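Q: A reviewer asked whether we had any structural model of the full assembly, not just the individual parts. We don't, so I'm hoping you can provide one. Inputs are below.
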Amino acid sequence: MFSETAIKELEEIRAKYPTARGALLPAIYIAQREFGHLSSEAYEAVSVALGVPRATVRGVATFYAMYKHKPMGRHIVQLCTNVSCMILGAEKLADFLKSRYGLEPGGITPDGRFSLVIMECIGACGTAPAMLVNDDFYENLTEQYIAEILEKYT
Amino acid sequence: MEKVLLKNIDNPNSADINEYRKTGGYSSLTKALALQPKEIVDEVKKAGLRGRGGAGFPVAMKWTFASADPKFPKYLLCNADEGEPGTFKDRPILEKNPHLLIEGMVISGHALSAEYGFIYLRGEYPEAKHILNRAIAQAYESNMLGDNIAGRGIKFHLAVHQGAGAYICGEETALIESLEGDKGQPRIKPPFPVNVGVWSKPTVVNNVETLSNLPYIIEIGGEAYAKIGTPDCPGPKLYCISGHIEKPGVYELPMGTSLRDIIYSHCGGIKGGKNLKAVIPGGISTPVLPPDKIDCPMDFVNMPKHGSMLGSGAVIVMDESVCLVKVCYRALKFFEHESCGKCTPCREGTGWLRSILGRIENGEGKEGDVDLLLSVAGNIMGKTFCPLGDGAASVVQNFIKHFRPEFEEHIRTKACAVKG
Ligand SMILES: Cc1cc2nc3c(=O)[nH]c(=O)nc-3n(C[C@H](O)[C@H](O)[C@H](O)COP(=O)(O)O)c2cc1C
Ligand code: SF4
Ligand code: FES
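A: Here is a predicted structure for the entire assembly that you could use as a starting point for your response.
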C-alpha cells in the first residue's frame, strides 16, 4: 500500500486529469519511488489507488524505459551513447565504468551503490558526452570527471 | 537578429516571473486577451508560422481545423518530448524561459477556445519539470493561468505530464495515448487529433518552440513577423549543433540560414580544423549529407529540395575520424529499441537492419550485405503505421547512397579504415 504522503500526492495529481487513468504514468513514478522498483506490491498499490487492473498497470509500465522492474543501486548512472555522445567518446566511458566500478548495463555494484543504464539521447548533445546521475545532469564528461562525480554519491 | 526565443537566457533568474515581466513578459497576453480568437488565428496565418516539431505543418491551418470542430472542451498539448537524437533546442526554453512557453500556451489556448493544456515533458528532463512546475505555480498566483485570467473571464489550466523514456511518444497520437495513461503506440489517422484527440476531444499538439513564437507574433504582428527568415518559412529558428564542431550549442538564427553558414560562420567550423566528413542536418531520422551538399537553406521547404529535411534543426557534425558504418549501426540500434512494436515492418525490419549493420561493423559482413540492407529498407519504406519506420529505412538508404564505398570496404577488408 501507498504511504499517506504518497496518497495525498496522488490525489493532487489525479485532480489535474479528467480520468483516473490519466494519472497512471505519474502514479507509476510514485510507486517506483516508494517501493524502490516496480514489485508486485507496487503494481498492487497503483491498481488499488486508481482502480486500474493490475495487468493493465504492468502492461503500461513495461512499455516505458524509465520504469525499473528490478532492484537497482541507490544511484542510477544513466550514460548516453547515442551518436553525438558516441563520436565524442561515450563508449570509452562505458568501458571505464566497467573496468573501474564493475558497472555493466542493467547491472548493479556489489555494494548496491550504483546501477548503470545506457540511455538514448538525453538532450545534452551540445555538451557531449553526457549522463544523468539520478536527476542530475553531467556534461563534457571525461574518465577523471566521472570519477570525481561518482565520489559525491555514497 | 534580435533574440526572441532565447531572450534573457543569460540572466540567471530568467525563469522567474518577475524577471520575465521586467522585459515585457506577459504584455502580449494582455494584448491577445483583448482580441477575438479568430483575430489571433489570423495573425498567426499572416505570420506564416509552421510547426517546429519536425514536419513544418502550418499552425493556423491546424488551429482552424480544431476550432471548426463543435466538441468541447478542447485541449492544447505542448510537445516537449524532444527525443530525436541530436536535439536539445527546446531544453533552453523549458529550463530558462518557461514563462515564454506558458504565455504562448495561454495565447494559443485563447485562440483555440481551449480551456485545458498539458505540457508532455520527456522523463529525461527532471530539472525542467521542477522549473516548469514552479513557473506554472507563479503564473497561477499572478492570475496568468486559472478560471479568470487577468480578470477577463478567460479560463486556461495547465499541467506538466512527465513521460517515461519512449521516443515514440513524441509522435502526436502516441503522445495522446501516453497522456491518457496507456502505452505510447500511435493511433490510426484519420480521425485526426484536431477532431478526436485526447479523451476523444478536439486536440492541438504543438511543439515547445512553435508555441513560444506566439508572444512575439502578437507583439510585432503577423506581417512584420513574416519578414523574418524565408518567405515560405518565416520566423526565427533554433538550431542545435553537436559533434565535431568548435562551438556546439543552441543558436537562434533566421529560418533558412544555410547549413554551411551555421557550421562555418556561426559555430566556428570543424573542431580542431579537421575535415568534414558528413552532416546529419535535422536529427538522426533525417538524411545524412556529404560535405559538398551543405549549401542548403535550413528550412522546411528548401531542405527536401537538397536531399534532406529540416526535422528538428539538430545538426550533427562528423569529421573524418568517424566510421559511418558505426554511426549507421548506432542509429539503427536506436530505432530498434524505440520501435513501439505495433506494426511488423518496423518491429522486425529495424531489428534486421541493426543486425546486418552490426555484422558489417564487426568485420563479419558478407558479400551482398549492402544490397540486402537496401532490400530490407525498401520493405519497410511506406509500409509502416507511423513515420518512425520510414525514418529508420531512410537513414540506411541515405548512408548507403552517399557512402556506399565505405560500407563495401568494411565488408571486403573485414575491418574499419578510420577506427573512429
Ligand atoms: C517518431 C516521431 C517522433 C516525434 N518526436 C517529436 C518530438 O520529440 N517533439 C515534437 O515536437 N514533435 C515530434 N514529432 C512530431 C509530432 O508528431 C507533431 O507533428 C508535432 O508535435 C506537431 O507540432 P508542431 O506542428 O508545432 O511541429 C515526432 C513525430 C514522429 C513521427
Ligand atoms: S512504424 Fe514502428 S513505431 Fe510506428 S507504429 Fe509501427 S512499430 Fe510503432
Ligand atoms: S546524443 Fe547524447 S545527449 Fe544527445
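A: Points you may want to mention in the reply: The longest strand of chain B covers residues 154-162. Chain B touches chain A through 54 residues (CB under 8 Å).
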